[in-house]
Amino acid sequence: MNDTPGSDALKPLLGDTTLKDAFTHKRFDDGGYPGTYGSCTAANKIDYLLLSPELFLKVKAGGVYRKGMWPGTRPVRWETYPQIIKKENAGSDHAAVWVDLDI
Fold first, then answer.
1. Is the backbone of residue 30 left (phi > 0), alpha (psi -120 to 50) or beta?
2. pLDDT score, position 73
């Protein structure tokens, strides 16, 4: 959605519905970085996976896949594909958010 959780544009989805952000599930692993863009700080959480309450109860696991993102240089923040040796090699500047459901 490319916007921060507190934005007015996302309020109807994040605050005014029963939808639940996968990041808040106890089985969700953010890999130690709460964001999904750039350096993946909390201020850079701009990607979401919103679930109905019914699906939220069926989450077996979840996480953020950053292997195709530039990890920074000092220190390197996460493991990447070996081909990513400079920022221009990254597949995206956004991470992929995923969940595994028990359905």
1. alpha
2. 80
